[in-house]
Each structure stands twice: as structure tokens, then as C-alpha cells.
Specification:
The protein is an alpha+beta fold. About 35% of the residues lie in helices and about 10% in strands. It has a 3-stranded antiparallel β-sheet, with helices on one face. The two termini are about 20 Å apart.
């Protein structure tokens, strides 16, 4: 298994989950989706409402780590 955990456990990369794309741990939601929402002018709250499996703490860890994306 070649699984990696990043951002203090907020993100995982596993070749068996979304082809190894970095996702929010415990979900199949790609981290890139958060940045797409933010780039489109949406708020973090809107993202969290759309993806209820992702926790605010996970988003905060990703946003505080510039090497995530």
C-alpha cells in the first residue's frame, strides 16, 4: 500500500481512492475542489454545506498549509 497522510491527517493520497488524487481524509472529495470553490468566489461555508463529509478543521489545516495543493 502506498497511502500517504498529509496536513496533520486532513488529507490522504491512496492509489485505490480517486486514483491517488489528494482527498480530504475519510472522503472521496478532492482537495482541488475546495480551491475551485474558493477561486469561483464561494465561501468556505458554501463548500462545507456542499460536502458535508468534510470537516471545518480539515479545511483549516489545508488552507494553513501552502504545500497542500
Amino acid at each position: 500500500m502506498n497511502r500517504r497522510i498529509l496536513c496533520d491527517g486532513a488529507v490522504s493520497c491512496d492509489p485505490d481512492v480517486v486514483s491517488g488524487t489528494p482527498v480530504f481524509a475519510g472522503t472521496r472529495v478532492p482537495v482541488k475542489t475546495l480551491f475551485d470553490y474558493l477561486a469561483a468566489g464561494c465561501s468556505v461555508d458554501a463548500f462545507l454545506e456542499a460536502f458535508d463529509g468534510v470537516g471545518r478543521d480539515q479545511v483549516e489545516k489545508v488552507l494553513s498549509n501552502p504545500q497542500t495543493a
